Amino acid sequence: MELGDENTATPGSDPERATIVALATGPVQAALATIRMSGPRVHEILARVLRRPGSALSLSLEARRATVAHFMDPADGETIDEIVVTFFPGPRSYTGEDLAELSLHGGPWLVAEANRVLTTLGATQARPGEFTRRALLAGKLDLARAEAVQALVTAQSGAAAKLAARHLAGELSERYQRIRHGLVSIAACLEGPLEFPEDTSGEENESAIAALKGLSEVRQCLEGLVRSQAQARRIVSGISIPIVGRPNVGKSSIFNGLLGSSRAIVSPHPGTTRDSIEASMLVGGRLVRLIDTAGLGVAIDDLDAEAMSRAEGHIEDADIVVLVLDLSADLQESDRELLSRLAGRQVVVVLNKTDLEPRFISTDLVELGIAAPPVLVSVKDGSGLPALIDRLTIAVETGAPGDDPLGVVSSARQQGLLVRALGDLGRVAHNIEGDRAELAIEDLRLAELSLREILGEASPDEVLDEVFQTFCIGK
Ligand SMILES: Nc1nc2c(ncn2[C@@H]2O[C@H](COP(=O)(O)OP(=O)(O)OP(=O)(O)O)[C@@H](O)[C@H]2O)c(=O)[nH]1
Ligand SMILES: [Mg+2]
């Protein structure tokens, strides 16, 4: 297609809609930078800025094929950069409209200059997620898949990226569609006898039984998805591992040792750590949220009490707890208390300060109910930390739930709507059994509406605004 050709507008595209432009790669000095442009004027704007290298002739662009071009400022005819451009004519493009990707050299000045030229020629700066929002409006993907795009971009571990990729491929959307069709057919089941009341009796009973069976399957499916929230949190935000113990046992030292940096203050004064300090790291390829906490024991003032209550909160929410004991001090009542509170939880016990004279031996712990051998560490000598990482690797593997056949929902928005759908279904069985089919059908419709909102089919603009404002610009 020759740039500058007339009549290049995509059939069905809205000529009134703004042509948007954005840097799709990071705003940093890099080898390359990609600028994306989408909308009805893409072709016309490209015709004004692109030239065949070494000639003043306009460029011929083949659809979906990378082409080398000179990018120039039409105001003075000066070439700004030699670039590679790929043109995706609508509707076969990400946004469904004409879309171009311009690959420049990644100098911040070049990028700013190219952006200035494109906006001078009429392109407007894209808002966060606006390309994906247009893809949604063009029916290229549903809202659950659009959210997966952002989840993929922000994934911090292999597991999180894999989960997002599966969602983007539509695995979850298909499940939602199945639930939705299930709800519609249950309602249809109940509607039949209402429409032809004369020839019912036995049939009415049969359709009520079929409706109840379908309802129980749909509810099971929804409950499985809601239950997956904890697993989703572990995958996306990381497995939560607080390091707890009495004051001064070396929790912050171990935290720093595991991270390989001096994030937390270490001092000989008991009560050094007050606010919890969090850091992410990969353990055995899994994302872990390591949390250094305030020492637990007897609080001597309000500040102490507040710091300890925060530490206790982390124990409540923990997936795995690292309990640190000081081998150079006698075991104390607060150690015993803490241990008994952690019964039944996944705990890794660390005996720290092995470089000092020991005041107890690890077998003393058996009577306290610690079956697994503790990990012996001396942060001072740097010994035992690799063994602690090995133990944590085993713990994250053991605690990791397998692939959930029902699916894992990581989006808080989707989770909220699933809970709402389950709430709507709360009285449906009761109403079917009580012969109140109209009421049951009404609630089934409400639940179906929640499913449609998950998929973005019934989402008001404000909901879309909220979803897309968390997106990257250029995505
Ligand atoms: N000898 C020896 N000293 C250690 C070791 N680990 C930590 N310490 C020292 O123990 C003291 C307390 O260490 P921290 O890491 O601040 O202990 P904490 O448990 O975070 O203390 P709080 O934040 O006050 O609860 C510091 O003086 C450390 O240098 C160790 O393995 N051997
Ligand atoms: Mg500390």
Q: H/E element string?
A: EEHEEEEHEHHHHHHEHEEHEHEEHHHHH
Q: Which strand order do you get reading across the main beta sheet? A: 3-4-5-6-2-1-7
**CATH architecture descriptor name of the largest domain:** 3-Layer(aba) Sandwich
What is the CATH class name of the largest domain?
Alpha Beta
Please summarize the sheet with the most strands.
7 strands, mixed
In CATH terms, what is the fold-level topology of the largest domain? Answer: Rossmann fold
Class by alpha and beta content: alpha/beta
What portion of residues belong to β-strands?
15-25%
Helix content: 40-55%
Please compute the radius of gyration using only Cα atoms.
30 Å
Can you tell me about this structure?
With 475 residues, this protein is of the alpha/beta class. It has three domains: 107 residues, Probable tRNA modification gtpase trme, domain 1 (Gyrase A, domain 2, 2-Layer Sandwich), CATH 3.30.1360.120; 146 residues, Four Helix Bundle (Hemerythrin (Met), subunit A); 165 residues, P-loop containing nucleotide triphosphate hydrolases (Rossmann fold). 43% of the residues lie in helices and 16% in strands. The strands form two sheets. A seven-stranded mixed sheet has the order 3-4-5-6-2-1-7. It has a six-stranded mixed sheet with strand order 9-10-8-11-12-13, with helices on both faces. A hairpin with an 8-residue loop joins β1 and β2. α13 packs antiparallel against α15. The longest helix has 26 residues. The radius of gyration is 30 Å and the shape is flat.
